[in-house]
Amino acid sequence: MEPIILASSSLRRQEYFKLMGLPFSVLPAKFDESASTQKDPEKLTRELAVKKVEYAIEEMKNRLPKWICGADTVIATEEKIFGKPKTREDAAVMLKDLSGKQHRAVSSVAFFRGHDKKIDCRSAACTVTFAKLSNAEIDWYLDTNEWQGVAGAYRIQGLASCFISKIEGSASTVVGLPLREFYVMLRDNGYDYGA
């Protein structure tokens, strides 16, 4: 298999690439993700996933790779879009807002094919229901530091799974790389993977 540039610093996405046996190297995109004014979760994640790929293209323009992948995830309620919390206090507010409610996790994946310089971008969403959290539970979770660097201030594959009463859709969407969509995307774009 040919190597893929992963334009993301997410350890979770890297773990999925390893799980899939994909050869990759990491080139984290460096730009202010909070600068976007987009209010629609799917449009926002698509915009940011494509920007990550474009960042890698610009950084590597003199030795452009054949494949580049960028992805982005947000957590959204009817009223708000939750990105990554900057402080413990931000994380506490997010968890209180999600407590006892249903929310959507939206992930988009952008995939660049070097042979024709096209970017394919696809999205997936799932619905997550949180149990009602006490202040003590929120403080306990914040003490784990799992909230750092993740949309919505929680990691579904970590201790936050103790708070989730229901998931409708793929949990990999919440983690940050919707595996079904990504698998199909690889095949549709001519990457030699799977059957």
In the predicted model, the low-confidence regions spanning at least 5 consecutive residues are none
* Percent helix range: 25-40%
**How many E strands?**
7
- Tally the helices: 6
Give the rounded overall mean pLDDT.
Answer: 94
Query: Structural class of the secondary structure composition?
Result: alpha/beta
The topology string of helices and strands comes to EHEHEEHEEHEHH
Beta-strand percent range? 15-25%
User: Describe the biggest sheet?
Assistant: 7 strands, mixed
Anisotropy-based shape = elongated
Calculate the terminal CA-CA distance, rounded to whole Å.
13 Å
Q: For the CA atoms, what is the radius of gyration?
A: 17 Å
Explain how this protein is built:
A hairpin with a 4-residue loop joins strand 3 (67-76) and strand 4. The protein has six helices and seven strands, in the order E-H-E-H-E-E-H-E-E-H-E-H-H. The protein is α/β, with parallel strands linked by helices and 195 residues long. Strands 1, 2, 3, 4, 5, 6 and 7 form a seven-stranded mixed beta sheet that branches.
Keywords:
alpha/beta, 195 residues, 32% helix, 7-stranded mixed beta sheet, 6 helices
Secondary structure elements and their pairing?
Layout: E1 4-6, H1 11-19, E2 24-26, H2 41-59, E3 67-76, E4 81-82, H3 88-98, E5 102-113, E6 118-130, H4 135-143, E7 164-168, H5 171-175, H6 179-188
Parallel strand pairs: 1-2, 1-3
Antiparallel strand pairs: 3-4, 3-5, 5-6, 6-7
